[in-house]
Amino acid sequence: MKNIMQRLSYFLIGAIAMMILTGCLDSTEPEHAYKKNIDSQSINCYENDEEGNPITIEELETSSYNSIVYMTFEEAVLRSNSGVIAEFISVAHITDDYVEFEFHVNDVIYGNVPEQTILLREAVGIAHIEEIEYSYSLGENVYTAGQKYILVMQRHDSLFYDYPIYVLSSNIIIPLDDIENSAMYGREIASFSSIDFIDASSIIQLIKDIRTSNTVDTFGDEDNARYTDSDAIAEIAYESDIVLEVLIESLFVEGHHNGNTYISKIINVLKGGQINTNEDDRVFVVLMKGSVEIGQSYIVILNRVGEHSLVYTQSSMRSVISPDDAYSINELNQALEIHLQSETDISLDENMSDLG
Question: How far apart are CA 232 and CA 335, in angstroms?
Fold first, then answer.
């Protein structure tokens, strides 16, 4: 059983790493609509299914089950970060994990969408909404070439993508010239909203009105972490979750894009407190291709994928530091000293407040 569970754990970790590298899971965003059911806690508890039956490796390896966070239409618009009117061009890429649809952007309703052409990515498989016990298919081409659509999306910028990735929020599909056939979660949008979808202009205005409401916190104007492209080690170290000195032992997953996952041994924890490791005291770090060599040690500045996850991702362009890079190490040491002093001051203030 121990050997089976170890294989399960490694498969699940590999799946999480591949989702990060393919854009189906983005660790820098808050809870969003496309989140694989293979989550960080599954690494520790994926022994039985919901009925108590053992889950086999074969069942997991053939599973393309996606757990979707349920949102109403209004919530989906609020929690997205970009909305456009765009004309469908073609299916650009098809893989076993995802499909990318190419659109020409005609008008930006909200958000940061500077590109004239965007790729809309969708996971392949079955989606399930637990709150309403409803499932539907993902990855099917439901678009018509030359037709315009209102797209409510989440934009993802990452070190590991060659281009920005856009993902539909709650699978909302609104044909501009066929509003009455608008869909959400794979079925008519009226099932998830009391709004009458009658004409395009009123829907566009409604979306703008929703974006300016204060009923739910919005993520729409929040860019991904601004330190991703920063040259300032102090800023990167402060904003990132973890700083480790590691030995890169082996390649675990080779990514489709600009990132690989490596099995690494922790030499020293410089920031981050308790680090989740596997039974061999190893972690899995997702780093840009060409940034490390097997058998060498590095200081890596990382972000967590989840509270219990064993996978950690490179946080910025300058987040991999060679031991020979004395200048960057000096910058980092100064930044960590400031961070430690700041943490100490906060702790003292809290203690004084408790005494008061």
Answer: 10
